[in-house]
Design brief:
By secondary structure, the chain is an all-alpha fold. The protein is about 75% helix and about 5% strand.
């Protein structure tokens, strides 16, 4: 929706994203820190995708979902950090109404898609550990494609509906968003119109689109842990747990930080804490995913070593020729 279309509804044509503006002496330091984080996130997740595509032994359901997750994380962090970095560097913290809702749509879509993708990965690990004899039949290529496509599609549909209703709100008062991106809660707090229907819609959408994947993930890991505990040998338990430990760490960080942000009471004293914790699922999770999966996964480390060896051999051949 163009900015001029908002003229009939509100006097506000842009918002000011405060970010960490209360720390003026640290703006350059914050810029350098988040610049390094963003570059490392994009490089790490891109490397994971390249290794999975290039390594034939990684063409399995688990790594297919991991490749999708790395792609999603790259897009996810790119909806927030470039705009945030630009504001830190230039000091311009304004964003148009259209830009704010666009950022909210893409961020919400990717966050919702990640919930479904994490659920698909947990279901994959459940079948591998609890139903090993039927794994290849139940988790075939067609099922993998359907789960991945469904994750992306559900994220887009859920957020499109919500942002459409959110965009009907009228903003006529203060335009300062006390966050480092266009988060939905501080955005609704600025609205002059009644937000009860939008809040109800948010609850309904969360119940329909985000609660089921969370419950599926939780149920899968309850079954996985119960199955692992029944394995008689310690070696067998360690081997089984190692196949899902990386994913469990990512799930814990992602859902744990989201619950803290959106379930804590919305007091002014907790506002700064919410911003800091929000960094966990918007910045930290995309950054640590490649580290967790590469450092705790033997097959990924082997693929990385092979890639490095091939690169070294190639450069040596080029120097010798």
């Amino acid at each position: 929706m163009a900015d001029r279309d908002w003229g009939n509804q509100t006097a506000i044509t842009e918002f000011i994203i405060l970010g960490f503006g209360d720390l003026p002496d640290l703006q350059i330091l914050l810029f350098l820190l988040f610049q390094v984080i963003y570059m490392a996130t994009v490089a790490g997740n891109t490397l994971i995708m390249v290794l999975i595509v290039a390594g034939q032994h990684l063409h399995t359901p688990m790594y297919f979902f991991l490749g999708n997750l790395s792609c999603l994380e790259t897009c996810y962090t790119s909806t927030i950090l470039p705009r945030f970095l630009a504001s830190l560097l230039t000091g311009d913290r304004t964003i148009s109404v259209t830009g704010c809702f666009t950022q909210q749509y893409f961020f919400g879509s990717l966050a919702c898609a990640e919930c479904y993708l994490l659920a698909a990965m947990s279901y994959d690990r459940y079948l591998a550990i609890c139903k090993p004899l039927h794994y290849s039949t139940l988790m075939n290529n067609r099922v993998c494609l359907q789960l991945a496509a469904g994750s992306w599609l559900n994220g887009c549909l859920a957020t499109a509906t919500f942002v459409l209703f959110l965009s009907q709100l009228i903003f006529c008062g203060p335009n300062e968003i006390d966050h480092f991106y266009c988060d939905v809660i501080p955005l609704m707090e600025l609205s002059c119109s009644d937000t009860h229907q939008v809040i109800l819609l948010a609850f309904i959408i969360a119940s329909i689109f985000t609660l089921p994947p969370f419950l599926l993930t939780l149920t899968s890991y309850v079954c996985i842990i119960a199955t692992i505990l029944r394995i008689p040998s310690t070696t067998g338990k360690q081997k089984a747990f190692s196949t899902c430990s990386s994913h469990l760490i990512v799930v814990t960080i992602f859902y744990g930080s989201i619950m803290i942000v959106y379930l804590l009471p919305k007091h002014d004293t907790l506002r700064d804490l919410n911003k800091v914790v929000s960094l966990c699922y918007t910045v930290l999770t995309p950054l640590v995913n490649p580290l967790i999966y590469s450092l705790r996964n033997r097959e990924v480390k082997e693929a990385l070593c092979k890639a490095v060896s091939k690169y070294m051999a190639f450069t040596k051949t080029c120097r010798d020729s």
